[in-house]
Amino acid sequence: GINAEYGVRYRPRISPPPSSTQLTPACVTAVELDCDAIQDLQDNIAEFEIDNIDIVQTNVTNTPIRPSFEFDTVITNPPFGTKNNEGIDVKFVETALSAVTPGGAVYSFHK
After folding, report:
1. Helix (H) or strand (E) holding 106
2. Cβ neighbours of residue 106 under 8 Å, at least 6 residues apart?
3. In this structure, are residues 10 and 26 in contact, taking their beta carbons and an 8 Å threshold?
4. Interatomic CA distance for residues 55 and 68, integer angstroms
5. Fewer CB near the terminus (10 Å): N or C of the chain?
6. 46 and 56 in contact (C-beta within 8 Å)?
7. Which residue has the higher pLDDT, 61 or 95?
8. Burial (CB count within 10 angstroms: exposed 0-12, middle 13-18, buried 19+), residue 24
């Protein structure tokens, strides 16, 4: 969708061998505006039997997601500026940076 943002909180999980640590999301918050993209996400959640994803339908650039909650990692796929939404990619990155914990990570990608 055109408004995808994902906030992830991690908890460490030790798996064999004992010296390796694997990060597993404790919870994921998916923020999306497009109804079709939300339906696709819900289908994938059901198919892969995932139980730690909350979906929020909103415009991420003008609605606080969780003002009292910060994410360890934010993954965003912003729409890149076109004639109808010039600069929107920057707004997505600014929103992601405002939601990530100090020392956290923001990943922005494009197809």
Report:
1. strand 100-108
2. 73, 74, 75, 76, 93, 96, 97, 100
3. yes
4. 17
5. C
6. no
7. 95
8. exposed
What confidence tens digit (pLDDT) does each residue in 27-63 have?
Answer: 888 888 889 999 999 999 999 888 889 898 888 877 6
In whole angstroms, give the CA distance from residue 24 to residue 50: 12
Nearest to 33 by CA among 66, 67, 78: 78
DSSP letters of 58-92? S-TTTS-S-TT--EEEEEEEPPPP-TTSTTHHHHH
CA distance 12 to 18: 13
Please choose, from the candidates 83, 35, 94, 84, the residue with its C-alpha nearest in 3D space to the C-alpha of residue 61.
Answer: 94
The token duo for 53 is: 């994803």
| pLDDT for position 27 | 84
